Amino acid sequence: MKIGIIGGGSVGQTLGAALIAKRHEVVIGIRKTTPDELAKPRNFAATLAEWQTKTGGKVATMAEAAAFAEVIINATNGEASVAALNLAGAANLNGKVLIDVSNPLDFSKGMPPALLPAFAGHTSLGEQIQAAFPQARVVKAFNTITAAVMLNPGLIPGDHDLFISGNDAAAKATVSELARNFGWQYIVDLGDIIGARANEAILPVWVRLMMTGGPMFNIHVQRG
Amino acid sequence: MKIGIIGGGSVGQTLGAALIAKRHEVVIGIRKTTPDELAKPRNFAATLAEWQTKTGGKVATMAEAAAFAEVIINATNGEASVAALNLAGAANLNGKVLIDVSNPLDFSKGMPPALLPAFAGHTSLGEQIQAAFPQARVVKAFNTITAAVMLNPGLIPGDHDLFISGNDAAAKATVSELARNFGWQYIVDLGDIIGARANEAILPVWVRLMMTGGPMFNIHVQRG
Prior knowledge:
The structure is a homodimer. Chain A is of the alpha/beta class. In chain A, 39% of the residues lie in helices and 21% in strands. Chain A is built from ten helices and eleven strands. In chain A, the strands form two sheets. An eight-stranded mixed β-sheet of chain A has the order 3-2-1-4-5-8-9-10, sandwiched between helices. In chain A, strands 6-7 form a two-stranded antiparallel sheet. Chains A and B meet through β7, α10 and β11 of A and β7, α10 and β11 of B.
């Protein structure tokens, strides 16, 4: 499958490498593709030049990555996601599955971060992306787990869940199939894109659990 | 143990009945103990007159319930909790374990409710209660599960977790011992009372899962 990843940070690089290892074609899209950008140190990740060498994946502009792709992954900083997707171009998103793995976190007061008020409460980043790009088929998913586990659920033993939400049932089925291919057994459908409020509300819980025991965990819903 | 429950709604009544069944002495505290109040229909619960007859428990004023108790449970509506605890009286809370099971939910826009902004983000109801009553030993707990399961975890099969947070280690140990007595095996300590942000952030997730499959569930943290 042709997959465009918007955002070249640790999440985009980790997902890209895992997808390439499963023989998907991956283009990471960033704002500017200058040599300086490719050589720039990134938080918790390699430079994109190193990523290209190591994985054989490509790096292009956000618009090129989105135009190339059948499925697009938003792996940008949540606060900047709508602006980044505008650079990718609404026309390049139309009709395509857009997997939103981002989180709208406010680190302005240090740890733990909170959800940014503009995206919390009776709204969510997932809903705002869907509203900004009504022709895209947005699926909120993978935002509730550390990057290493997103496409490698076997790193956590036992039963644990991938939470997804979105308005388009076929798009959710595409994402679920992709996830199953990486070993996800428990996919919890939180309903339409309003469910992104729940996807994103997991983050304050996630961060606290991370602070008290590290990032290698996930949660499982037990029903009675 | 002498337990005072502030709030006579379905959560207070359910917890009270379960505690009485385990031979604790329970007094439910409400604002006014007039015959009208005891006969008043309550959401998802019996009248308090019926609860008294059925359980043998007592109903008194909030101040009387708090003065009587060794351990106090805040089972009021989150938005009104600090006001209710002021009626219970700071002097009656001082030095005592105060289990905060409440949630600050905003139903003003219907379902799903959001967290009330005044209690969300870089704060929480649990922290605000601790700040308002600095001599009380606040433990946030039991707010992440439906009332029937709070003191009857066996209703949900498999492994699932009770999340607690609070500044006072001995108070958390008291609550954990009480919980284990009701069958709780997995108690996840979210650290100091700032962890109440995580306890309360579970609610938007909980409500969405409730909307898609009913309230009889709980979550479990799997660590890698």
